[in-house]
Amino acid sequence: MSSIAKSVILIDYVEEGLVGPEHFNITESTVPELTASGGIRVELAGISPDPFLRGRIKKPVGSASTLETIRPGFPMVGFVVGKVTAVIDNSNWAVGDIFGAYLPFVTVQNLGPEDLKARLLWKLTGKLTEDRLNLGLGIYGMPGSTAYGGLIDVLRPIKGKGEVIFISAASGAVGSLVGMIAKNVYGCKVIGSCGGPEKCALITSKFGFDHAIDYKKINNKDELKAALKDVAPDGIDMYFENVGGMHFEAAYESLRVKGRIAVCGGISGYNDAVTPPVSVNIMSMIYSFNRIEGFISWPWLSGAQGNFLEDMHGFVQAGHVLPNETVFRGIESFGEAFQSLFTGKNTGKVVVMF
Amino acid sequence: MSSIAKSVILIDYVEEGLVGPEHFNITESTVPELTASGGIRVELAGISPDPFLRGRIKKPVGSASTLETIRPGFPMVGFVVGKVTAVIDNSNWAVGDIFGAYLPFVTVQNLGPEDLKARLLWKLTGKLTEDRLNLGLGIYGMPGSTAYGGLIDVLRPIKGKGEVIFISAASGAVGSLVGMIAKNVYGCKVIGSCGGPEKCALITSKFGFDHAIDYKKINNKDELKAALKDVAPDGIDMYFENVGGMHFEAAYESLRVKGRIAVCGGISGYNDAVTPPVSVNIMSMIYSFNRIEGFISWPWLSGAQGNFLEDMHGFVQAGHVLPNETVFRGIESFGEAFQSLFTGKNTGKVVVMF
Fold this sequence. Notes:
Two copies of one chain form a homodimer.
Chain A: E1 3-10, E2 24-31, E3 40-47, H1 53-56, E4 77-87, E5 98-104, E6 108-111, H2 113-118, E7 121-123, H3 142-155, E8 164-167, H4 173-184, E9 189-194, H5 197-205, E10 211-214, H6 221-231, E11 236-241, H7 246-252, E12 255-263, E13 278-280, E14 291-294, H8 298-301, H9 308-317, E15 325-329, H10 334-343, E16 349-353
Parallel strand pairs in A: 8-9, 8-11, 9-10, 11-12, 12-14, 15-16
Antiparallel strand pairs in A: 1-2, 3-4, 3-6, 3-16, 4-5, 5-7
Helix pairs in contact in A: 3-4, 6-7
């Protein structure tokens, strides 16, 4: 049986500035019947506007990224959550299975054996009920595995030692999870930076952060260092970098001995054509044994490293992490939802559910 | 029996510029008889002019360093090699023992039980013969443990994979050792940067480096990146940082996936009052999982981490590492020897032997 699918099409690359609804078309197309032996048909329940996609809709310039290229006139590609609606001769998947994946933003699609080999899909059946599919884009998806891998395997907090962690974009999808795991699982002292009094109140009252710094009241690196010193007079052990710019520099200069920085994003520069570099005195990292390390979620999301899905499910069931979401409804809202990531109007994980 | 000791006295702090003989006095003093139970008397055979001492003779500004402060009017403190000449009730040391240590530059001194507890001394008896005591300041001392720890535990080359390592100050005390261990023990492809055709010839013909880059022919970061690309078209896996400045930036921008940088020095900025920062695009380290890590030799030299002395002794005996030294004679030559570190007139480890 053929179906009608809707797609989010990128109209053209956008080198700099805010991206919004005007940069995408929603188109309809017919999906042929599933015929491939070993294939599955999937129906998406939601798609994920994520900050990293901003870099993907600039013209590619030979980066180290191995993610597939996004091209004007073709569907956006990113993280999705969905259900399996048909299966032909496949022992891994059953009709009704719930999954997260990195796929084109096309509401109905057939995945042949080659697609299933090349594409990242992870099974969420048994972990997510129908009414919580949105969590497949957040806690049980890329942001969750980013928080998990970055905290546990890159920053490596020492359990029960009371280490101090600083987190930027702390009310966001990744930052709020990092803070809750650091606090509730590792016993860290947790400091978050976010924009405005509402978000600051949210991370301290709801997510249990020890301190919030409102970066909108901060004018430069030195003021941010001073704000950090107020709440962490002896410096910080870890910094989870989502923002870049003055946040990175202030955190770097506030590290104490054996301090470490995990870098997985730098949203402050994403709308620039060329991301501004940060300025680092590398001499200061020698005697202090400091470490800076970049990473993306892929090893943990794919299961190549760690035990993300089981561990995170345990954290959810124990109440260590709480959902934190802004939900947009309908595929047509993708452009607006994506824009909200950069205007600071969202809190937590922004999702587009159908 | 009392003795006459000679000391290297720092006249005053020097905030910037080249340091030389005019900044030190050589004084004489009487050393009292050894009386402390549990104490030893030592006689130094040599002292070590090392680049890191340049930072120690600037006025201290509350750094993360835990090394003891060097003060005007008092002896310099640094790495030495020596022999035990008297012992009272001490089961760890015997007359005739050879050792390396971090001690004041005073040719004869008594070390009481408290000194022996607080000071770093490592026994070299059985590893070094009388005619090779100078190696206690190089291969068997701080530079050796810097090369060992930085390569093996910070950069962590994968044995036999043929990873590409770039080393700055490659003809120097640390750099030449890093290159030889990387080549002969780990099977790396080794690229070194040094100043002038003689040093370039030395590292390729004598120390077995695959390629040498003469940085004196290089004007800026982009030229250095191009020179690296000529010999490592697919980028580098590791960079051992001894220099700072354009070397760091070019190496950082040449890293491939899972690339890492070990930072233990930045001699290009040591004579500046304030070390110039480097400029880093931290976004480029995310998808490539790059890592930058600072360290000093202390954990390996003290035996807290790894198995430095035994492993390095094995490398020497197997012919994997060769000595590489410039020897100055007499304590009075310390200032001249120290200056040579910054004028590029030395090759390998500069030592002052008595």
